[in-house]
Amino acid sequence: MATPMKARDTFPKLKMYIDGEFVDSASGDWFESFDPYTAKPWCLIARGNAEDADRAVKAADRAFTSGPWPALNASQRGALLRRLGDLVAENAERLGELEVKDNGKLLSEMAAQLRYAPSFYHYFAGLADKIEGAVIPNDKAAFTYTLHEPLGVCAAIIPWNSPLLLTAWKLAPALAAGNTVVVKPSEYTSASTLEFVKLIEQAGFPKGVVNVVTGFGPEAGQPLIEHPLVRKVAFTGSDRTGAHIYSEAARDIKRVSLELGGKSPNIVFADANMDNAVKGAVSGIFAATGQTCVAGSRLLVQRSVHDEFVERLVDFARTARMGNPMELDTQVGPVTNLPQYKKVLGYIDVAKGEGAQTVLGGGKAQRPECGDGWFVEPTIFTGVRNDMRIAQEEVFGPVLSVIPFTDDDEAVAIGNDVVFGLAAGVWTENIRRAFTMARRLQAGTVWVNTYRALSYTTPFGGYKRSGLGRELGQEAIREYLQTKSVWISTAEEVANPFVVG
Ligand code: ADP
């Protein structure tokens, strides 16, 4: 139901950020952002279109080619990033609260993410002046060396699940490498980005180096990925939108890095520490209400411990406290937005229709503490076969499919039998098995006896349909650089101009 105009007038209006100014959209239109806990709108966001995207890209291009930014040396860029990291640390609680208001994830989790976010800026601040070329031994009379140079304007397209963390993963290496950036946050979660960008200004980045265009994917995102001055698109989101961005980028041979979905196997062997494995299974699927790309949404359990393990898991998961995500003892919050809520409930019906057995949850959460919010009960299905849709398609919600297996070979075969390859978990006390499984599983990250662990030092990205390129760690900065080879002739005389050699 549309919000009455009068109520709408009282909402805060959040403008976009282009060329160092907070500005209205070119159309003057706004759209509502919802609080998933109340299912009600709470603020208005400027509704960007192609004109806004063009303004932002041109500002970023001017900042890349002229003015103070390209004149800074790498250590100076590092110093700005370090200051930005410090400012994020100082504002972590406030930014975390804004994220919760928009995406309904737990304040305990978002505040922890924001307290960790500065590390990403600090790490890449340190890398800025360690981007080193090489002197290449040459068989010609020449001195040759390489320079690693920035690409130009990068578009960072961000999803709704962890807005500022995933922005940091792109912004920090992009800026350390000397690029300029246009950020397009998700239409569901723009508020925290518009607050964060004030810190960019405070840190002292020149205007136009970072811009934020808000709006819907097809209206505000599409013109960014099509823009000829954008040289790279860094995207995190669904595999469907990722595939679209990849094909659009092909037209101008833009660089892309894509961090897409997953259907990650979390594999429990009979020799595992069961208490830890139960916690690992819960953290894999019910933390963040299952709204993480690395969700361990397929729990593979060795047959000999299957029934006992499922019983312990159900007992543990049943105790999860649902409710207001702003309260620090809440463990499972709402789903972030209405379409996603409907999608998750739709997949629960699909699983039931496919013959999976519901051993926990299985629908909307109708507990008093959930109010009108978009809550789904933590749900566990047993009797799932890996060829069912519930085992093959990403749900992005608190829905776990349990699949039994007999031995290591079968665990590998089932684990790898999906189009995705973002992450995998292995629970075992056997060291040989740990190394062997880590090698055999087709995933960009394999966790042994832990799940959802991430660090700014360690590359993250997907195999197969889960993506292209790597974020985090030293590898990440290469995604924002291109190599130039420079030849300085040491010959006295230019040789025969008609013969190349
Ligand atoms: P979801 O449907 O779960 O929001 P998406 O992958 O579609 O996931 O969205 C992730 C981000 O991609 C959002 O910021 C969204 O606005 C953006 N997006 C969606 N469609 C496009 C598009 N055609 N071009 C550029 N960005 C897009």
Keywords:
seven-stranded mixed sheet, 501 residues, Aldehyde Dehydrogenase, Chain A, domain 2, alpha/beta, single chain, binds adenosine-5'-diphosphate, six-stranded mixed sheet, 17 helices
What does this structure look like?
The protein is of the alpha/beta class and 501 residues long. The protein folds into 2 domains: 18-134 and 151-260 and 466-476, Aldehyde Dehydrogenase, Chain A, domain 1, CATH 3.40.605; 265-448, Aldehyde Dehydrogenase, Chain A, domain 2. 39% of the residues lie in helices and 21% in strands. The chain has 17 helices and 23 strands. The chain has helices at 5-9, 50-65, 68-71, 74-90, 92-103, 107-128, 163-176, 191-203, 217-226, 239-251, 274-285, 306-318, 338-353, 389-392, 408-416, 431-440, 473-478, and strands at residues 13-14, 16-18, 21-23, 30-35, 40-46, 135-136, 142-150, 153-157, 180-184, 210-212, 230-236, 255-259, 265-268, 298-302, 357-360, 379-382, 399-405, 420-421, 423-427, 445-448, 463-464, 467-468, 481-489. The strands form 6 sheets. The chain has a 7-stranded mixed β-sheet with strand order 15-16-17-14-13-19-20, with helices on both faces. Strands 10-9-8-11-12-22 form a 6-stranded mixed β-sheet, sandwiched between helices. α16 links the parallel β19 (423-427) and β20 (445-448). α2 (50-65) runs parallel beside α9 (217-226) and α4 (74-90) packs antiparallel against α6 (107-128). Adenosine-5'-diphosphate binds at residues 157-160, 184, 186-187, 216-218, 221-222, 225, 237-238, 241, 244.
